[in-house]
Design a protein that fits this description.
Largest sheet: 6 strands, parallel
Distance between the termini: 26 Å
Helix content: 40-55%
Number of helices: 7
Bound molecules: 3-methylbut-3-enyl trihydrogen diphosphate, magnesium ion
Shape: globular
Structural class: alpha/beta
């Protein structure tokens, strides 16, 4: 398969389960935090490549509800990387017309980080070129339970469309393509409602090693997939 060029058929929404930072560091006898730092470099490059390719929606799974159970110093490292990321690159993202959205329970985060994230979301809200959606303290089960409670509060039955509007992703299309790095073939509580018909790609590469070549391979693989949505092609 030719993978050095972009296929004609691209996803409208691509989501990444960025996994393997810890193993990347371990293989180099480095602390896990070195892997996370390298992972941020990767995400900057990959997000840029996706938008340059003309994919308008990119979602990143950055921190799951379960990741809170990791050792406190690792969670601290992830918080400070988030702070750095949102502070350093906000200007650049605004220049590029990128709207930043976040999904997850931010109340868990320290106040200063919450305000940095809130600032990025607020300042970029009118950007229309592309959308970068970041999952922070996100879990699909908790998202669904939250939406069910909102529906109960509204006091009337929901259908698939009105229920979707109660999820964090109310104004985003469902992901066409989900990519998980590091060889693990599972969703780990990621967008369980929205991924009903997503194409899933599990690649062996660890997230810090995932580059343009690997991205193009996945995009070419996606273009070759036959999406039937349960129907029969004539
Ligand atoms: C993904 O890398 C980053 C987060 C979950 C925050 P991991 O930290 O899970 O890396 P591995 O899976 O231990 O290699
Ligand atoms: C999923 O990776 C969460 C993120 C990438 C943010 P994990 O490393 O936390 O998932 P498991 O533990 O392998 O299922
Ligand atoms: Mg992992």
């Amino acid at each position: 398969m030719k993978s050095d060029r972009l296929p004609d058929k691209l996803p409208r929404h691509i989501a990444f389960i960025m996994d393997g930072n810890g193993r990347w560091a371990k293989r180099r006898l480095l602390p896990r935090k070195a892997g996370h730092r390298e992972g941020v470099k990767t995400l900057r490059k990959i997000v840029d490549e996706c938008f340059r390719a003309g994919i308008p929606f990119v979602t990143l799974y950055a921190f799951s509800t379960e990741n809170k159970e990791r050792p406190a110093d690792e969670v601290e490292t992830l918080f400070s990387l988030m702070k750095e990321y949102f502070t350093e690159f906000l200007g650049e993202m605004l220049e590029k017309g990128i709207r930043i959205t976040v999904m997850g329970d931010l109340s868990y985060f320290p106040a200063d980080l919450r305000s940095i994230i809130g600032d990025a979301v607020q300042k970029s809200k009118d950007c229309t070129d592309s959308t970068l959606n970041i999952a922070l303290n996100y879990g699909a089960r908790s998202e669904i339970v939250r939406a069910v409670n909102a529906a109960v509060e509204q006091g009337k039955p929901v259908d698939e469309t009105s229920f979707s509007r109660l999820l964090y992703t109310a104004d985003l299309p469902d992901p066409d393509l989900v990519v998980r790095t590091s060889g693990e073939a599972r969703l780990s509580n990621f967008m369980l409602w929205q991924c009903a018909y997503s194409e899933l790609f599990f690649v062996k590469t660890l997230w810090p090693d995932f580059g343009k070549k690997e991205l193009y391979e996945v995009l070419n693989g996606y273009a070759a997939r036959d999406r039937r949505f349960g129907k029969v092609k004539q």
